[in-house]
Write a structure and sequence with these properties.
178 residues; alpha+beta; 5-stranded antiparallel β-sheet; 22% helix; globular
């Protein structure tokens, strides 16, 4: 058994290291070189985002609106991303409270099947914006201590898979690189 432990430990460490290397590799040129001017028509404006901001993702139900707003340029040290929610036009929640670079606040994943998600945690609640390539998007909210999660259906596809969004996620340090 002693001889089996070392190879298994090595394999585990190698696989873990491979994952961390992938996170530091550059995205493909179509993402790394994407510009807002190229993709501006892909983004639908939201009343929750200002005129100088990009609406990276939005969802509207009969009474509520949700949006991920950002500055046009976001890096690990400048710009911002902010999730906002409103009920009947009145802002009810924003994360983070102050506009700041998103590194350490959000986690973005782009899956091999074209799906994408953005996650964050606020006051113990876990939020996940799900953006499937071929289905409607949704927001999943999981309360602390394993309570019952809520899924909010969002009409249509959103824009978490747009190349410029992916570039912002990479440049800002929130892309987990899966």
């Amino acid at each position: 058994m002693k001889h089996l432990t070392s190879p298994l430990l090595f394999l585990s460490l190698a696989l873990a290291a491979r994952g961390s290397v992938a996170q530091e590799s550059l995205p493909v040129p179509s993402i790394a070189d994407a510009t807002y001017a190229e993709y501006r028509n892909e983004y639908r404006a939201s009343a929750l985002c200002g005129k100088e901001e990009i609406t990276l993702w939005s969802c509207e139900t009969r009474r509520r609106a949700y949006a991920l707003c950002s500055s046009p340029v976001v890096t690990r040290t400048s710009g911002y991303m902010q999730y906002r929610a409103a009920n009947r036009g009145k802002m009810t929640f924003q994360y983070p409270a102050a506009k700041s670079p998103p590194t350490g606040l959000f986690s973005y994943v782009s899956y091999g099947n074209g799906n994408a998600s953005l996650e964050f945690t606020s006051s113990g609640y876990h939020y996940m914006l799900l953006d499937p390539l071929r289905e409607n998007s949704s927001i999943v909210v999981s309360p602390p201590a394993g309570g019952k999660e809520t899924e909010i259906a969002c009409p249509g596809n959103q824009t978490l898979q747009v190349n410029y969004t992916m570039r912002l996620m990479y440049d800002s340090g929130v892309w987990l690189g899966k």
